[in-house]
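Weekly modeling sync, notes
Attendees: AB, CL, MP (scribe)

Item 1: holo prediction request
CL wants a bound-state model with NDP before deciding which constructs to order. AB pointed out that an apo prediction alone won't tell us much about the pocket. Agreed to run with the ligand included and paste results into these notes for async review.

Input as submitted:
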Amino acid sequence: MPLAAQPDTAPPPAATLESTDPATGEVVGRFPVADAAAVGAAVDRARTAAQAWAALGYDGRRRRLAAWRGHLARHLDELADLVHRENGKPHEDAVLEITLAVDHLAWAAAHARRVLGPRRVRAGLLAANHAASLEYQPLGVVGVIGPWNYPVFTPMGSIAYALAAGNAVVFKPSEHTPAVGVRLAESWRAAVPDLPDVLQALPGDGATGAALCRAGVGKLAFTGSAATGRRVMAACAETLTPVLMELGGKDAMIVDDDADVAAAADAAVWGAMSNAGQTCIGIERVYATEAVHDAFVAEVTRRVQRLEPGTSYGPMTMAAQADVVRRHVEDAVAAGGRIGAGGTDPGTGRTVAPVVLLDVPETSAAVREETFGPTLTITRVRDAEEALALANGNPHGLAGAVFSRSRRRALDLARRMRSGMTSVNSVLTFAAVPALPFGGVGESGFGRIHGEDGLREFTRAKAITRQRVPLPVPLMSFDRPAGATAALARFVRLVHGRHR
Ligand code: NDP
């Protein structure tokens, strides 16, 4: 029987997105996929909301951001439960992630006026008759595209700072964690009912993200892989939309001769294996000097053997990521690497057993490429200088860590590490310091979230001069008297000419 003809005006059925619990396969959320029209409509609503949000000023925004922070804190356990179910990480780790995000929200709201508000600057000698001022104005609507590994903390690094800077946000969560993204926007609406469209979440797939890139937002803040980052930049280039790129990492830890080996091992195991290794700033490579290598490996092995699936770490959020981890382990072993702890078979299915790899050649995928799983390569080096050279030899440059008891030596190594962030005698700590900027170099991207730089990232600098008194001798006028520029040249020679 022929199908009944659809009237031309009937909208096509919306595609549906389903997220599942990586541990059980149970459906966590079902959402319509936002198409280009839905993205355009959301950005239009956000544009209107952005005007009202900006007009509130710093105090009005701070009050509402505080209300949102309060709402998130009061519902922390429910949100953590959702993160646990949709991403797979243990509930306790989800609590830690949300706590950090709330702290960043508090900092961004508290410091926005000081960092971005109007301030006088010195006009300088040539414009001494003017007052000069600088302020950082919001961009309007900021598009945020986020990953699934820290579905609250990572997008909040952009959302909190963009909102505090006076922008509205349209957020496209990862298709693996849409329910968390939608819950964030719901909590905003519950806490700030007078301006519900200042933060909207649009579940969808890659095409939804691509539509957001083309929707004419003031800036697109992307967090994800370098491969997708390139596609996002290409799409944004069509409309000259500026971008912020928070991309992957291959972070290294240097363990120097005088390091506290037990502390370094503890930090390396946490940095590599927590969140099942799905951390952009996770430790993936360790370079340990001759003096400490064997003791460090023994300590790491002891600690890795104590890890329990389910309590220490959850399943991989994406099945495909588990395959990447297995490929890297196989490749490392085929290239001559040894298994230090864990097994050659990191398990089947989504739960990947932690694996420590020793003597892996620097050319192998396990050392070169982001693994994003619970693996750690440990390489013996002559000294910290060799460690630094190898650490810096990777195209990524997100973060890293240095372990040494000498403050001077550790800070020197930290400064010379090719990365946006480095922790000394700990791992990942910079992410918990709201005043510090977060972002990478090279394949890890550019631009900064968090801290003062993170607030400015979502603004445009606005410069204003105001003439206080006219100059007796106008220089920038067709009425300029003859000889005025000769006098100016004499003045410049007097002030600057003596410098050699
Ligand atoms: P992806 O690059 O696969 O995806 C990131 C986001 O981009 C997702 O929301 C995805 O949507 C979306 N997307 C996919 N295709 C397009 C497209 N063509 N145009 C626009 N958007 C698109 O990364 P993952 O989600 O797998 O996240 C893991 C990566 O993120 C790792 O490399 C990790 O290191 C990095 N990361 C970096 C951080 C940092 O701060 N530097 C922090 C956290 C993670 P969909 O899911 O629907 O495909």
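Recorded for review: The longest strand covers residues 130-138.
Action items: CL to compare against the apo run; MP to circulate these notes.
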